[in-house]
Amino acid sequence: MHEVNWVILACFTAALRDSIANIPGLSVGAHADARRAIRCVRYLTDFCLMAQCRSHTPQTTVYMD
Q1: Given this model, what pLDDT does residue 14 score?
Q2: How far apart are the C-alpha atoms of 50 and 14, rounded to whole Å?
């Protein structure tokens, strides 16, 4: 299942980067929004991977928080 998360992250990142590169005159704010969106998907991917663990320690729950 965790492979699916990485594929989603890779596709989302590639789509955002391609759209940014192909739109002339895109604002600095739009670039920042795209970077935030990529980071959000990365964090969600990490969370999903951690949530699949069979047991958690206080350290892993802090990481997931």
Answers
A1: 80
A2: 24
Cα distance between residue 21 and residue 4, in whole Å = 26
The helix-helix angle for 2-22 and 28-51 (nearest 10°) equals 180
pTM (global) more than 0.90: no
| Residues near 52 by beta carbon (within 8 Å), at least 6 away in sequence | 1, 2
Q: For tokens 């320690």, name the residue.
A: 57
pLDDT in tens, 4-29: 777 877 887 787 776 666 666 667 77
Cα–Cα distance, 44 to 4 (Å, whole number):
12
Q: What is the pLDDT of residue 22?
A: 66
Q: Which tokens belong to 18?
A: 């391609």
HEC-encoded secondary structure of 37-61 = HHHHHHHHHHHHHHHCCCCCCHHHH
